[in-house]
Amino acid sequence: MRRILVLGAGFAGLWSAVAAARRLDELGVGPGEVEVLVVNRTPSHSIRVRNYEVELDATLVPLADVLDSIGVKHVIAEVTDINVVERKVVCTIDCASQILAYDRLVFALGSRLARPSIPGLEAHAFNVDTFEAGSRLNDHIGSLPSLPASTGQYIVLVVGGGLTGIEVATEMFGKLRTAIAKATPCGLRATPRVILADHQAWIGSDMGHARPVIAEALESLGVETRPGVSVASIDAEGATLATGERIPAATVVWCAGMQADPLTARFPVARDRLGRLPVNAHLKIKGMPAEFAAGDAGWLRIDGTHASVMSCQHARPMGRFAGYNVVSDLLGAPMLPLQIDWYVTCLDLGPWGAVYTEGWDRHVAATGEQAKRTKEIINRQRIYPPLSRNRREILDAAAPVVQAPPYQLH
Ligand SMILES: Cc1cc2nc3c(=O)[nH]c(=O)nc-3n(C[C@H](O)[C@H](O)[C@H](O)COP(=O)(O)OP(=O)(O)OC[C@H]3O[C@@H](n4cnc5c(N)ncnc54)[C@H](O)[C@@H]3O)c2cc1C
């Protein structure tokens, strides 16, 4: 029996696996002939884009709920090494090392938060990169009232004024006020502060025409902004800037940048500045005979001109096409190129609403409540796999098609 190994079960890996099962079904190839095996470090597919939210329970989808009914196997393991010459992957399963051979590989281990070597960052900064990290941040905010009183007790410093940092900051007042209200049901309540810092001259510097909308939302919510600053060190009581200025804060949240998974270095190809593997329009790693990559770990010129963006917007279709093509490649059937001619952004701005932009220069198409409704549809419906455990419904959802932009749907 031949094996297609899918590494990772995020937006790219999960959809690669489902799309591979769909293509096998379409070609009439049974599970006795080709096995699709997914390796992921956790038993769930994480709706990672929601990790800044207050309530995270619904963001985990058990892999078994999606994969069991379509005949895709999965193992919970840590991938530790890849040998592309021997077509073998080394994993740690229950503390034991195991080798998995493959005929075709889809590399979809995604990305992780970039962590520069700033003193104290590893030990003291929170983040929202994973479900576990987002939960830890929320637990910490809930426990702030039990800390000894200090100047920074209810001050949150968010470092990184990109999309993730803005979403963390705009959601933070609600979390802080809930924690304070629980600890102080009546009487004088502490006043929280949220500070959003970035080394760039602007908050949301990549957000083009949406920048004034973001500025308006931050101001109306009371988020203080500190563009043009650089954090030199972090400790339990706050951060020190490169200028020596001290920002007291019991909570520092690091949101500054993402890097592709370091195992991308195992492929003998030149990676881009984010550590991503170059793939062709079929999602095959350029120059590799049997290896595909999708999601944050790979990149292609998605519309023929612009490089794909580390986003679930691109990871999901990259996964669907990688899964279709990896089966086609193995069985000598025709492959399909991926091309997406639209690009949008929908940025949550907490109780203020959201901003929805269209195009690579980010023209504002909707703001406030209207954009928030679109954001909620994206975060809570559009990017979820079917939860019905219905084989046909799950396979159909992985068809190799490019969906219409979310805003046009309602
Ligand atoms: C807070 C936040 C908000 C975001 N908001 C948006 C947004 O609004 N819109 C948007 O398009 N994008 C957004 N993103 C980006 C988006 O989440 C990523 O681009 C997307 O998750 C990439 O999908 P992926 O499958 O490539 O990687 P991931 O989702 O990171 O999945 C990788 C998978 O591989 C597993 N894995 C990794 N290493 C190993 C290993 N060594 N062994 C075993 N398993 C491993 C992980 O557990 C995970 O399941 C946001 C990200 C964050 C953190």
Q: Which keywords apply here?
A:
410 residues; binds flavin-adenine dinucleotide; FAD/NAD(P)-binding domain; 9 helices; alpha/beta; 2 domains; 5-stranded parallel β-sheet; globular; 4-stranded parallel β-sheet
Category by helix and strand content: alpha/beta
Largest sheet composition: 5 strands, parallel
The main sheet orders its strands as 5-2-1-9-20
Quantity of strands, as a count:
24
Strand-residue proportion = 15-25%
CATH architecture term of the largest domain: 3-Layer(bba) Sandwich
Full CATH superfamily name of the largest domain: FAD/NAD(P)-binding domain
Low-confidence segments, given as residue ranges, are none
Bound molecules: flavin-adenine dinucleotide
**Rg result:** 22 Å
Counting structural domains, the number is: 2
SS element count, helices: 9
Task: Describe the protein's topology.
Layout: E1 2-7, H1 11-26, E2 34-40, E3 44-46, E4 60-62, H2 63-67, E5 73-76, E6 78-83, E7 88-93, E8 96-101, E9 104-107, E10 111-113, H3 121-124, H4 131-143, E11 155-159, H5 163-183, E12 193-197, H6 211-221, E13 224-226, E14 231-235, E15 238-241, E16 246-248, E17 251-254, E18 258-260, E19 277-278, E20 291-293, E21 298-299, H7 312-331, E22 344-348, E23 354-358, E24 363-367, H8 368-382, H9 391-396
Parallel strand pairs: 1-2, 1-9, 2-5, 9-20, 11-12, 11-17, 12-13, 19-21
Antiparallel strand pairs: 3-4, 6-7, 7-8, 10-18, 14-15, 15-16, 22-23, 23-24
Bound molecules: flavin-adenine dinucleotide.
Flavin-adenine dinucleotide binds at residues 8-13, 39-42, 46, 48-49, 51-52, 78-79, 108-111, 128-129, 164, 261, 295-297, 310-313, 315.
